[in-house]
Write a structure and sequence with these properties.
By secondary structure, this protein is an all-beta fold. It is about 0% helix and about 60% strand. The protein has strands spanning about 1-5, 10, 15-25, 30-40, 45-50, 55-60, 65-70, 75-80, 90-100, 105-110, 110-115.
């Protein structure tokens, strides 16, 4: 599975960005697509996730501001980020998880930088 992110950049506080993650390769049985982020000096954290059935989950700090969605025809997942804050600054990573009886298999994109200026 290959994941390619795009859409990061520099934005002022209160602005918006939309991240995209295009998946290719052996994408069958990918159960969950998600966005993680990692700020300097901090651990990588889950931002939002969406299952094959469309169920979504968000970390508390982005609820009401970020929206995750997927276009199955394009094998692409999106993260719409509104009302951005300086504390949203991080490298954002796309993740695909395959759940098999043998275990969990995670695939990662290369990351895209999001910088929010105050």
């Amino acid at each position: 599975v290959q994941l390619v992110e795009s859409g990061g950049g520099l934005v002022q506080a209160g602005g918006s960005l939309r991240l995209s993650c295009a998946a290719s390769g052996s994408i069958f049985s990918i159960n969950v697509m998600a966005w993680y982020r990692q700020a300097p000096g901090k651990q990588r954290e889950l931002v939002a996730a969406i299952t094959n059935g469309g169920t979504t989950t968000y970390t508390d700090s982005v609820k009401g501001r970020f929206t995750i969605s997927r276009d199955n025809a394009k094998n692409t997942v999106y993260l719409q980020m509104n009302s951005l804050k300086p504390e949203d600054t991080a490298v954002y990573y796309c993740n695909a998880r395959r759940v098999l009886a043998a275990g969990l298999y995670d695939y990662w994109g290369q990351g895209t930088q999001v910088t929010v200026s105050s």
